[in-house]
Amino acid sequence: MKSASTYPRQNLVWFGIAGLVGALLTGIGEGGLQLVPGGNYTDPDYGFFLDVSRARLTFGHFLSVSAAPLYLAGYWHLTGHLLPQAPKWRFGIFVCCAWAFILATVWIGQRALIAETVQDLSSDGASLDILVHQTLLHQPLVNALRFVMAAFSIIWIRRILSGKTRYPRWMALFSPALLLALIFGLYAAAPVIGWLVLPTAMNTSHAILFTLSLLTTSRIEGQ
Fold it and tell me: Each residue of 55-65: pLDDT tens digit?
């Protein structure tokens, strides 16, 4: 692993700018989610959410969860300056901070859902409408992941078939998208078996991929 001192200072500057942008945009998004004049933010029943419109919830939800990951860039910047001669400690601290901000991003992603539940319960009780809109809030997040995995799979296949990686060419068959398709296909063809893996399709496909990657690369390195 390279020491932090080998990274150009300009690179760390850009990471810092990304972190700042993330902090600003996440703050705006979270404000949209729950900023209420005179709101009681210690209310265990989340009463302040009753004064936040659905439009604000939607805006704040998407902006905050989209911007929050930029905190990771910011912490790469901070740890680069904080521990320039201790790369192992730097990496360990960065990982801990990154882990915490990932969890925080998940938390932010739940705020709009909690708010809408509070609002529906305060009127005529929860309805099917809230489930529909909650789906509209969270489904794009997993769809974005699926899109990225599809794009990555195209790169995976092309690079491995070019012979310019450490993987044997047959590993091109085990792209994330293809493994996911096989799991969904298994469920469609044999639901009695497929239901065991479909709920964890993304995790299962990556467990297979990581295992094959470790096996093939360790074999090459050991030769």
Answer: 999 999 999 99
